[in-house]
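User: I want to check something. If I give you two sequences, will you return the structure for each one separately, not as a complex?

Assistant: Yes, each is folded on its own. Here is the first sequence with its structure:
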Amino acid sequence: MAELLLSALIPIVKEKSVDYVLQQFGAMWGIKDDLEKLRRTLLRIQSVLRDAEERQVKEQAVKSWLAVLKDAAYDADDILDEFNYEVLWSKAKIQDDIGNKVRDFFSLHNPFLFRLIMGKNLKDIVERIDRIAAEGDQFGFRSTAQPHTESRTQTHSHVDESRVVGRLEDKEKIVKLLLQQYEKENLTVLPIYGMGGLGKTTLAQLVYGDPRVKNHFQKLIWVCVSEEFNVEKLVKSIIDTATGTKCDLPNMDLLQHRLREELSGKRYLLVMDDVWNEDPVRWDEFKDLLGSSREGSTILVTTRSEQVSRILRTVPPYSLSFLSDDDSWTLFRQRAFTPGAGERPELIEIGEGIVKKCGGLPLAVKALGSLMRTKKEVKDWVDIMKSEIWDIEFGEQRILAVLKLSYNHLPPHLKQCFAFCSIFPKDYEMEKDMLIQLWIANGFIPSEGRKELEVLGEEIFDELVWRSFFQDLRQRAYNYKFDHGYQSAATCKMHDLMHDLATSIMGSECAPLLETGHLEALPDNIRHLFVSGPRQLDIGKTLNKFPTIFTLLLPHTYLDMRTADLSKARSLKVLSLEYTNSIELPVKIRYLKHLRHLDLSGTDIAELPEATSELFNLQVLKLDYCEKLCKLPEAMRNMRSLRHLYIHQCDSLKHMPAGMGQLSSLKTLTKYIVGDDDAERGIRELKGLNLGGHLELYNLEKVRGTEDASEANLGSKQNLQSLALCWGVGVWLTGYYSVEAEDHSFDEEAEKAQNVLAALEPPSGLKMLVVWRYAGLRFPVWMMDRLDLLRNLVEIHLGSCRRCEHLPPLWQLPDLKVLSLCKIDSIKHLQSSGREGTVQPFPSLKHLRLDRMRGLESWWGEEGGDPAPPCFPLLVQIEIRDCPNLTSMPVLPSLRELAIKGNNKIPLESVLSHTTLSCLDIETSGANTSSETRSPSFPQASISSLKHMNSLESLSITGSEELRPLLEREDETRGFSSTLQFLGLNKCNWLFSRQLPSSPLEIWTNLTSLRRLTIRNCDALLFWPEEELQGLISLKSLEVRECQNLTGTSSAPESPSSMERGLAPHLEFIGIIDCKNLMELPKLPASLKSLYIDNCPNMKALTDQLGHLPALKRLYIRKCSGLTSLPQWLRHLTALENLILIECTSLTSLPEGKQGFTTLRRLEIKDCPQLTTLPAARQQRLPSLQILVIKGCPDLERRCKRGGEYWDLVSLLPAPEIGEQSREQPPSFCSSPCLDCFSPV
């Protein structure tokens, strides 16, 4: 049963009642006496709250009294917020004289009317709370102090094997079992089962991190499953982990295709943590998606259910036992006693008794051990040992009681912060900074002197980690620019039992609504709600259903905003609409006066209403990735409570509002565009802001000089972690070959640029530094000579600094892992001075990008006189693009990924000498020419060979005819015949030209392990390459793009053997994109599951053979203007689940009839204006249809709406989308190959 937690709320309301500024205005408004009476009453209540909260468990009358008190406290909080808002409004009015504007937004704009109405409301609530306090006196509550916390010097953020107790023997047994599966052809499933809190996840983590396991398996993947066994989510999670990049594919067919690409042919370990699903059909469905795997592949499952372990297992499950008494005591001692402080004998004896009562459950032992460290008196230890919780029968209910005991001894604000986390689903990865901001927005963190609320929030977070309320801490990359993950955010999770505890405490006040849940089932008095998308949601009705809601998180939700303005919700403090379809703020500002946190990230919003500047309580505004956002509210300087403004990747934003320096509370400003200083838009606006985290400065050419730049006071901003200094407004980017609009490095005076950059000296402690489009002749002293200032740097990007002749001594930085140099034309060497002593250069560097460094001649200045080439000991990835004067490669013992692109003179021998490569991407300088006789891009070497590249998994070739002699030799390609999974061919006309004297068929002979092939921009490809591909027995995916001369038809007469030939026999996916002259599809294999046809306007009809594709699940056709109809046999594809038709402007009809389409689950028709019918008879219900989307088809939309011929079909669907505008997405399958897609994780 839910508990009522007021010990955190009452102090917050009391603190607001004594706010200094409110007291000052209170005297003027005649409410000072009421504020003082409220303070005294709340103080009296606060003194007895701990006793009341403890007694509510057994006394229903006390619980009812607390419920009444809590409602009144919330109302008092709202009223005090109204007064506080009026104070902020009055200050802003004095500052900017905005009173006339505000009258348009607020009904209580008249100061006299406000004081009259709100003064009465305050008096009423004070009397109400006073009566409630008097009623509480009858219970005879004891006055007791609340618990307090000790400061912590550190937390544990990962599984440290040296601190894991009692599970090393279990780990050895599991590892041995895994290694013994080597010879087994079928996929092995090994379950670990046991009750909650035993340490199943910890054991799986130990196994996962064991070096023997890492060496044995080619891929290691970890996914959390939890109670909702959602196959689509599972597949996405597996792909995310396997590729290291987020998967956004929209449907199951593409997902399973991508999943098989990643797993098939590899020996992998897949850990599925916390599985609950007992439905064998769903398990078999998931297992089938994994496809074929290499011998020894294993799924390691953790579960509480013995039934689950029996269903899933292919080998006997591993039953995890309880800890022994000795191991339990060792774990308890780690937590309960401060190292080095000694252990009091009287506490040891009691502690041993407590440990025995825990029954060998690690979670209970850790929780109580952490609790006992806060208890110094023998009496407190005895109370715990004699607690009535030990009377509960042993099992998970006793564990919950133990965890509840630990919870009861938390200070009130920690209780509230922990319990709030039940808003998230189980196994949800909570981002630390976001969580702290939500706590602050809801008022859960009490102020403590001058200490920043964020600092207090970090202390609370660390305390909850220490006490085992949070677990699984890790660092997660948060911005795609930082694609190597060195700039990241801390995240954590809650153990399922901890989540159960939090849910039991919050009850109906806080809930996550999962995809399978229904909004109508939630209670109306909910205060905090997380809705798991994607789903369609009427935001107006939602807010009206929950009029007292404080927190509403709606990520990735499709919002119906027709009733948004009818909202009655006036207490909203947190609103998150990230990655929804919002194009404007869906709730009027007048209803959002209490709002503290607003997240519109990833939406198409172009402009925030000017009234947004009247959100005087707003603390966090997130607008990351709002690519259409071009304007912020001009009066933003009035938002004095704003602490964090996130505007990452708002590329359309070209100027900032005036007076940003007046936002004195601002701690995060991710982007600032320098404007004219006279208009309060200059760089000196940053002077008084104590900024931290990430900061990007643009338009630095607007800075007048040294004095102006010094006014930014960057050196004092000690909390900055990353800094980008950019001339111009164009966003700095790495890894993109497109020429920037501002590619001229600004023809301003070099001396001015040098003075500005010199004056923008950052603080020490930076992790990342960017300098972009700098016009100076040299880098400043703080970059060239101040190693102490830069020694913590992990990531550096220098771009378009064309005039600089010398780089800073980057090779001396001990922690540098990522270095990107782009278009610094005057640089001749990476290091131009002699190496000092025996110091290893670039000791930590892992990723290096050299992009259009046209003056670069050598790696070291003295390389010509030093016979030993430089060595990069840890470098795993290097990309060299258009460096025409670089003629050698360094020693790279750890290299795994190599890309050589554009105009380069590095000998092919040097490229191919790196035999440990898993990924090779070669592009020639002549790739853009159509000449068959162009000169080679790679200098000819005496010996070039591929035969020793036996780890190669991905090979991308653009142009590169120099490789032809090697690829044609069977002995050269034999080395990677069993490893090569991906081949990308771009502008490789030499492979398909009919004018060459000899056939290149030998190239395909050894590619028996190839699973994915892309062919792009090959104008010599006239007909489908059936002869070339027929021997690729492992090929699953084929993509053909932008082959403008491909027609598909052959002018040669067909022989009986050629008619039977077709493409690769086991293809499952074919994508044909932007082939403008294509008229005919190839002969398709029966194994095909997905067919994509996009922008092929000359294709008039689908071939008859499509009717013989028993496995085809998904058919996608877009921008095929030549198509007028689809054939009748389409109805009888027995596996078809998804049919998507977009922008087929000539399409007039779909196949109709009384039977067929029995398996169709998703039907999308967009922008096909001549189409008037569905693929169903008027009285027929498509039996499997779940999703129907009809947009941009006027006649068909009319027939699908109420009263139309298809309404009976449409009305039965859960959430049809008929006629509404949508955010169109491009085709979501992977395009051209890249290093990131096919790198081993």
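And separately, the second sequence with its own structure:
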Amino acid sequence: MPGTTAHLGALLEGGSLASKEYHRKEPRERWCRLKGNLLFLMKNKTSEASEVVILERCWIVEFRSKTDVSIVLKFQSGEPDLYLEAASKPDCESWAVALGEANSEGLRNKIQQLRRLIMEIKEERSADEARQFVPSSQVDSLGEPQFTSIQRIANEPKLEFSLACKDLVAATRDRKLNTFIQVSVVHPAEHILTRYSSTEIVEGTRDPLFLTGVTFPPEYPIYEETKIKLTVYDVKDKSQDTVCTSVLPDHKEPRTDVGRSFLGCTTFRVGDLVKSKEQQLTLTLRTSDGGKTVGTIEVNLVKMGEIEDGEADHVTTDAQDQKFLCFLPLKSRPRGFLLSATCAHNTENLDRMTDRRAKEECALVRECTAPEGVSGKDNLPLLNAVLKNPICKLYRFPTSDNKWMQIREQMAESTLSFHVPKELISLHIKEDMRRNQELKELGELAPHWDNMRKNVIAHCDQMLSLYQDTLAELGKHTGSSFKSSCSKGEKTLEFIPINLHLQRMHVHTARLKDAVYDVITVGAPAAHCQGFKNGGLRKLLSKFEAERRNTGYQCIYYSPENTAKAKEVLSNINHLQPLISSHADLLLNSASQRSPDSLKNSLKMLSEKTELFVHAFKDQLVRSALLALYTARPGCVLKKPVTPRNSVEEGGDSQHQDHPSQIKRQDSIPHHSEYDEEEWDRVWANVGKSLNCVIAMVDRLLEKDNSSSIKEGEDDPSPADRKISHTGGDWYEQLYPLVITLKDCMGEVVTRAKQSMTFVLLQELACGLPQCLMLTLRRDIVFSQALAGLVCGFIIKLHAGLHDQGFLQQLHTVGLLVQYEGLLSTYSEEAGMLEDMAVGISDLQKVMFKIIEAKSEDFLPIISGRREHYVIEVQLPAKMFELLPQEIKEGKLLRMYPVLFNVGINEQQTLAERFGDTTLQENINQENLELLKEYYKLFTEKMPPDCLPHFQEQNDLKGLLENLHQNIQAKKRKNVEIMWLAATICRKLNGIRFTCCKSAKDRTSMSVTLEQCSILRDEHQLHKDFFIRALDCMRREGCRIENVLKNVKCRKYAFNMIQLMAFPKYYRPPEGTYGKADT
């Protein structure tokens, strides 16, 4: 075909085309149609093709000038060139692409691209769904083919590796690459590509060293046959990449116009990496069609606890915002899943405090090895019972002396999120059913009181039904063991803590011992479903008590202290009466067997429990309540009307109890001249007298038995004579009537005391219906959320300190400090949440812990008690239980001392400080400072100075307490130094650390990541130039962004730019990690 020039029209549909000999000035117009690899040239739309050009073994030359619209087709066969000219530059570019892809090579490239896209479409599981993997043990049980497992240490990650790229090719020569690697997994049985994780973005280099690596948890189903796909992207706009593309469906490749473009990818088998001699693979990165090479990628297997001998001098600060992380495991020696609660907070004056804080030694830096006699394998069953769905992130950071430190960040849900509330609701149901039954058994009452009782029982039955329905709904719950922030308003989940997780940082350096730092993150305990229109519990309880004191209802006012005492008496009755009856039966059984030793032991137990029983009624409240109940019986005519009186003294000492006329009676309790108050004293005293009779009879029997034994030894009678002598005086027959009398006296006391205390509770309920029951419900909801977090924190702390004798001594001698850090504002609804949280945490003071030896494979804690007093029994495996001091093994109850310090940091707190009121926050901080001082005083009095060698001098703690006191008194706006000081004191006192905000997702994430980086800087010499970079890395690629994803299905902190302007400097997330998101 001669050289011609043609004018192009519309693509594919045909257009005007002109051809001429090359030397001609005017082109010949022709219509064209592109079909496959054939270009048809026609004189007009309807005519047949006059020429056909086969587009094989040819290439397109497109002129790059903005004004030139010409294209040249050059042929390898040597045929003359074909010159084409389009009507416009866009038409020219479209024709160039179409003609270039028309040959068979272009079609092959298209097929390769389509195959790659089909593979991408098969990504049916997103990154967060990949976390909910099927454990390998379950995979095997499903009957799938058996694959080669990777050898590992118990409770350690299965596989960890780091990544680096070299000689990456940019689209243009002057383009500076900003790259990251996306890691996907292809399971050998499913052949489904699952996005797993990604590295940080390394900017401005074609040889990026990715210091964020990849780690697979112990139960992740990964085998030697598993394939790992590594895809490298070039990020054009960092903020666009995070905010836009992170929420794209997993099966779709991000478009280049939303912030990133595809560079290349490669795939390798896990077995090839594990079995390689150098434990390193160098792979070639290729384009999607598999043709062009765009660089290489190095995959290095990371060994447990290995520290690189080389220095970190090659890590420069030239690359702006380069993140320095690498997933690295711990030492390859047996170890338990050790945990300890520590944290450190930074402030707006972070730089100013660096030198001072760097001088302080971390209180909980301890070698992370398992206690003697306890292996990691021994710990696994218990930890698997408490923790679930772990997420691991590991980093490598340079230190100030140009060495590397290795950090493993871990986050795990707790199964206690649902277990504890369900146990607690079951106890509430039993307690309320027992109360309702006691109200019904109160006996005959006058019409006024009887109508009041019926009304109370009706309301109580409705509330009981609500608890039962809630428990039934929770029993149906399956799936995740945590409650997401989006579920705050779900009625059926209102007892469940929000977003409860363990956040742990494990630091490994070459020169220092391993250190573990833990904090429990949970949404502020609050009754979101109840709303905050009228405030929270702190305000509502105060208002309710004032209204009840001044109520005009026809009922008797009892103070909250007296109603609590009534509940305690009823609880003691229900607990002690069956015990006393059981010990009495054991005494008779010992008497029937004529066993002196058994008889003595049974009598001792009976005496101890009966004395406790008698002591429980040594209270003026029982006496006054009996009088009030007498006046409420039908047919009783009062000589003095019931009139409310404010009584300051509610009881008297022992000498006044014998003289009723000298006693100032309970508020509003009438005095009735016909009532014999001494009758109760006689009934109550009869129990003691009956017990004394039993004791005297046992002593007499044992004395006779002893004297007869001596006489028998002297006379040495025959066995027949000895048998006759024994049957002559039967112990059982002589003790039986005395024991029956004791039971009868005790039964009469129980009947009267139960009815009197139930009458007190009737007054409490009647004076405040229905508000009283609604407040009880709200308090139960808040307490349930708080208790679940506390039990989780205690169990984790216990495991951390099993090998620390000082900690164990502190545990049973003083108890543990539990420090809560609150980030709630004092404006609008969050003020109500803070009020709920303050009461819920204060109520934790009535919780006691007891450690017992597990008798089965079920290691979940057991909860018993009532609303005013709970005992949490923590079960330990036998080997771990043996490590405990004798006092704890004997069942000594362990106390907790909860304190709360709150500092609002968001834009709502700015409004509260400028236009609202911050008194609530100030009062809470001041009150809890006093509680903290009380614990410190108790600690210094009972603990020897040398019991905890890792603690600093007591003067340091005194200085920190004084500094905390000054900061609280200063009333400085957003004074986050209060939180740092409180957390530091908690660490030095070996306490349990909590961090809370509204949902433990956004502000909490900023706080715990700041805490972790502060610890690395102050305790482990993190290079000062990398503090902000490490902080950004943990917030962008660490566990906390995974927490956000779990909660809202999106990798974005729920902040906007205006909000962040109000945040303290170091509480702001990096660019591109925040935006609009549901929370």
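Because they were folded independently, the notes below concern the second chain alone. The radius of gyration is 39 Å. Residues 262 and 920 are 53 Å apart (CA to CA).
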